[in-house]
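quick one: iron/sulfur cluster bound model?
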Amino acid sequence: MLRLLGYLLNQGVVTSKDYCAPLEDGLGLPEFSDRACAGSQCNECRSVCPTGAITVDSGENGGEVHLDLGACIGCSMCVRSCPQETLVNSKKTAVARLSRDDLVISNVDRKVPLSLSRSTESKSLFYRSIACRVVSTGCSACDLEVAACGNSIFDMERFGIHVVASPRFADVLLVTGPVPKAMHDALKSCYEAMAEPRRVIAVGTCATSGGLHRGGYAEANGVDSLLPVDLYIPGCPPHPWSIIDGVKKVMDGRQA
Ligand code: SF4
Ligand code: SF4
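yep, here:
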C-alpha cells in the first residue's frame, strides 16, 4: 500500500505513459535464456510443473524443451528448479497470440511462427473503438485484472476499449475461466446474441486451455472447446497490459 501511495505521489500523472511496461524481476511467465539445457537426464522442470506444460528431449546439441504458455499458470517452479538457468522469468507483457500453437515456445526454435486467424481478415474492422462483453466462468482473478484495465493507471478507455453490459452491443466476447459444463449453454447464448462481426478472446490460462481443470469431470477445457477463439492471452491471471494489448491487437487487426 505504501509502495502504491509512493508511486502515485511521485508519478504526478497517475496514468501510466509506458505502453506494456516491462515487469519487475521474477513476476513474468517463463521464457528461455541463452544457456543450454541439460536434457532429459535432468528433467527437473518437467517433473515440477503442475500442469504438464513442459516436455524435455535430448537432441544432438543438448536438451530440447517445449513449454506451452497456454497451459502455464506462472508458478515459476520450473525457473526455480532449473540448475542450468535455461528457464528464466520473462519481463514481457505483450504475450497475446492469435493461434493456440504459437503459445508453445521452445529453446531450439526461438522464432515463434505467426499464423493467420480470422481476426487478420478484418484489418482495422473496429477502427479506434471496440466494445467488450466479459463472461466470467472461473475464480475471478482474471476478472479483477480486467477490472484493473479500467482504473486510472491503465485506463483502457484512452485506447478506445469499452466494457458493455449487453452482448447485443459488444464487438468482442472476453471469456475468463475454464468454462465448466454449467456455463456451456450460457456462454453459447451470449455469443449467439452478438451481432457480426464478432470476435472471441480467451483471457488467461484457464480460458486458453482449461489449465489445472483440463480433463476433469466438469468438462472445463477452455473456450475453444466451445467457440471459435480469435486471440489467446496467457497468464494466471494475465497482467492488465497483456489484456489491453490483446484487445488492441484484435481492434487493430494486428498480428500477435
Ligand atoms: S511456471 Fe508454468 S511451465 Fe513453469 S512449472 Fe509453473 S506452470 Fe509449469
Ligand atoms: S530446462 Fe533446466 S530444468 Fe529443464 S531439463 Fe533443461 S536444464 Fe533441466
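The radius of gyration is 19 Å.
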